[in-house]
């Protein structure tokens, strides 16, 4: 007897109903919205700070490795390395990673550590209570054995 294989549709529904798929979808949506915030910070704060030294637009920083280099962007001639756009993307990544770490990962890990400490403390208190109960029961048993033994000798 062979077991009936689940259909492709049933497998797809099972895949969609997993909790981690929904969590992943939420993370992607939040990440996309968060990217706009980070890009705004880079364009509104970081680029002007860099602009105090040079140009405000990081994309305009480049180096010519094969001349003649004239123009910028798609109309440029020669071979240019657009290191300014790489710098901007790197700054965006670092800022995104820092915000995610300090506003999401670090607080969540501290919260989970506190929860674990509370759980362990609760387990430790239960264990102490169980040990204390056990000691009391042993003392009662020993007292009963002692009474029985002393009463048995009097006969």
Instruction: Please give the order of strands in the largest beta sheet.
Output: 1-2
Give the averaged pLDDT, no decimals: 78
- Please give the count of helices: 3
User: How large a portion of the residues is in β-strands, by DSSP E?
Assistant: 5-15%
C-alpha end-to-end distance: 76 Å
Structural class label:
mainly alpha
* Helix proportion: over 70%
Low-confidence segments, given as residue ranges, are: none
Shape, per Cα inertia axes? elongated
Largest pleated sheet: 2 strands, antiparallel
Q: What letter string, H or E per element, gives the SSE order?
A: HHEEH
Q: How large, in whole angstroms, is the Cα Rg?
A: 35 Å
């Amino acid at each position: 007897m062979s077991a009936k294989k689940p259909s492709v549709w049933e497998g797809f529904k099972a895949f969609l109903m997993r909790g981690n798929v929904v969590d992943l979808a939420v993370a992607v949506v939040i990440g996309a919205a968060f990217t706009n915030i980070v890009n705004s910070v880079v364009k509104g704060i970081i680029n002007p700070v860099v602009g105090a030294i040079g140009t405000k637009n990081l994309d305009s920083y480049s180096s010519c490795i094969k001349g003649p280099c004239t123009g910028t962007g798609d109309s440029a001639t020669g071979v240019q390395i657009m290191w300014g756009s790489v710098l901007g993307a790197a700054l965006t990544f670092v800022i995104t990673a820092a915000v995610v770490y300090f506003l999401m990962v670090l607080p969540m890990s501290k919260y989970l550590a506190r929860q674990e400490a509370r759980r362990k403390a609760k387990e430790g208190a239960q264990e102490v209570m169980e040990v204390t109960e056990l000691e009391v029961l042993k003392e009662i048993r020993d007292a009963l054995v002692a009474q029985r033994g002393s009463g048995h000798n009097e006969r």
